[in-house]
Amino acid sequence: MIQSSLTPSTITIIVLYHSRHGTTQQLARHIARGIESVEHCQASLRTVADINPDDAHPTADPIIEIKELKQCDGLAIGSPVWFGNMSAAMKHFWDQTTSLWISGDLIDKPACVFTSSSSPHGGQETTQQSMMLPLLHHGMMIMGLPYSEPNLHTSFKGGTPYGASSISKQGHSGLDKQVTELAFAQGQRLAKAALALSSINTSFP
């Protein structure tokens, strides 16, 4: 993503993900593209640390630091489907955010979720719902994908009203075009909401 110097009017949205085989990482990048298509919005791609070092996969994106969440204006989080739930690494990260919950640092910030699975019935929607739970406890404002997105009606490779998703077999490279368009749209919608909320908060201290 573009790493230009920030201006006072620029807002930052974190795209946080855990990816085992790369599909969730690809979705994160398309969401980040959607965010940065909105003027004055910058995406910050971050990942979470694997619990078991032997499971770690190389990534070009830095591991998230909890303090970064205090400073962001919005958040998108993504995880592959693990038995209908978010991955252990993503859950472990959120289990360490009690200090943010106590201080209320994430209250009223917009957020969205995204996921990927290797089969149509892998548990995408329950995984997305599992990622929403800590966000709700933090007081965040969760956004999905409305059916005004045409691809949500016709895509067979992913996409849910809960957020962007992908169905792809392990080892297959590239995402379906409709899936990438939905991810882009989700990032764009999140950015517009974050920008509007930021403007409101600036105008009415």
UniProtKB/TrEMBL annotation:
InterPro entries: Flavodoxin/NO_synth, Flavodoxin_CS, Flavoprotein-like_sf, FMN_Rdtase-like_dom. It comes from the Bacteria. The keyword Metal-binding does not apply. Its EC number is 1.6.5.2. Its cofactor is FMN. It is an enzyme of class 1 (oxidoreductase). Keywords: Flavoprotein, FMN, Oxidoreductase. One of its GO terms (molecular function) is NAD(P)H dehydrogenase (quinone) activity. It holds the Pfam family FMN_red. Residues 13-191 form the Flavodoxin-like domain. This is NAD(P)H:quinone oxidoreductase.
